[in-house]
Amino acid sequence: MSRSPSLPDRPRLDLDPDMTPEERLEALRDHFEEIVRVNEQLTDQLDDARGRQTSLTDEVDQLERENEMLKTSSLYIATVEELTDDGVVVKQHGNNQEVLTEVSPSMRESLEAGDRVAINDSFGVKEILDPETDARAQAMQVEASPEVSYEDIGGLEEQIREVREAVEEPLINAEQFHEVGIDPPSGVLLHGPPGTGKTMLAKAVANETDATFIKMAGSELVRKFIGEGARLVRDLFELASERQPAIIFIDEIDAIAAKRTESKTSGDAEVQRTMMQLLSEMDGFDDRGEIRIIAATNRFDMLDRAILRPGRFDRLIEVPNPDVEGRERILEIHTERMNLDSEVDLRALAREADGLSGAELASLATEAGMFAIRDERTTVEQADFRAAREKLDQEEESGSQPVAFA
Ligand SMILES: Nc1ncnc2c1ncn2[C@@H]1O[C@H](COP(=O)(O)OP(=O)(O)OP(=O)(O)O)[C@@H](O)[C@H]1O
């Protein structure tokens, strides 16, 4: 670094008491000139210093920018997998490396499993990322590991077997398909009346395969987020590949994949764009790794056949209302934790419940419990089930929605 030039000496005024007034005046004049000269010299030096200060400030700014760039380029993107007592488990994108890292207590408070974060070389979490994507991700329901298991589903043994074969096997035994030389089914379509357990099936398979369950309702894709549908579909698949193994579950697929109508409203165009995006994501599905896609509909007749072509939703599984054995099993499942009177005959109740869906049977059990509570009993009797059935039938006749009890 160059040294700063030394400052000029301060001018001194030496007045001798023996001086004549003329000599004094002369000395004062000389002193004044000297002061003016030093002042000019100092002003020049100050100008120089200002110039140097400006160029040094520029240099500092430049270095700060470079430093900032170096810092940002060394951050990696990761997803928070789990918050544990020992720290936070993050999975780095790209290499899928999982690490346990520590975060500051304040950051920990705002972190949730599934958040996208920026981590540095030593895996320290530096930032929580992308609120915009997160806002859009709110349209999706993400469960790291749903709690539904196959045992919780009544009367769908055949459907469970088919779903396991079409979804579970390719996830767990991808190698086997490769060796035999066939492609596993691309997408599975569950179709049948409302409340028959389609969502439960999808959740159970995610649970069984330790896959993340990502649900999106077709109706939300096009109703809530007009103009966003196609982008949401892209996000959905992107999120799935970040969180793989993952099961994508698109409920009410008919909302985006209904047969084309003649009308050409802007809403239709939006639906069309969303569906095209879904099809193109599915067509590029082969290289997507451990992601399986399940869709569900209550309106199979309305579907555009384009989505059922090979390589798309090419495995159809019908999920009907339960038969009498199924109904009995569903009642058993939903009354398992209930305090039932020994007289309660679930078989007889199942026989009388012809045409009821799984969801309606679940409501029946809860309503029966409510009747016992109203009567200040802790045991649920056969009569409570009958009263509950009457109430549900009346509600159905009057068109009001039965309460959904999950
Ligand atoms: N087969 C079943 N076994 C046990 N419970 C069931 C069954 N089917 C439905 N239920 C009960 O009904 C609730 C709703 O079921 P689910 O959401 O899986 O139906 P769904 O077929 O996906 O309905 P929707 O078509 O209306 O979306 C479940 O949470 C469960 O309590």
Main attributes?
47% helix, ATP binding, ATP hydrolysis activity, disordered C terminus, proteasome, nucleotide-binding, 406 residues, 14% strand, coiled coil, binds adenosine-5'-triphosphate, 5-stranded antiparallel β-sheet, 6-stranded mixed β-sheet, alpha/beta
Concise synopsis of the structure shown:
The protein is of the alpha/beta class. The protein contains 13 helices and eleven strands. The protein is 47% helix and 14% strand.
Walkthrough of the structure:
- With 406 residues, the chain is α/β, with parallel strands linked by helices.
- 47% of the residues lie in helices and 14% in strands.
- The chain contains 13 helices and eleven strands.
- The protein has helices at 21-73, 105-110, 131-137, 157-172, 174-180, 198-208, 218-223, 229-242, 266-283, 324-335, 346-352, 358-374, 382-397, and strands at residues 76-84, 87-92, 98-101, 116-119, 125-128, 141-143, 187-191, 212-217, 246-251, 291-297, 315-318.
- Helix 8 runs parallel beside helix 9 (266-283), helix 10 packs across helix 12 and helix 12 (358-374) packs across helix 13.
- The radius of gyration is 37 Å and the shape is elongated.
- Adenosine-5'-triphosphate is lined by residues 153-156, 194-200, 251, 296, 298, 330, 333, 358-359, 362, 406.
- Adenosine-5'-triphosphate binds at residues 153-156, 194-200, 251, 296, 298, 330, 333, 358-359, 362, 406.
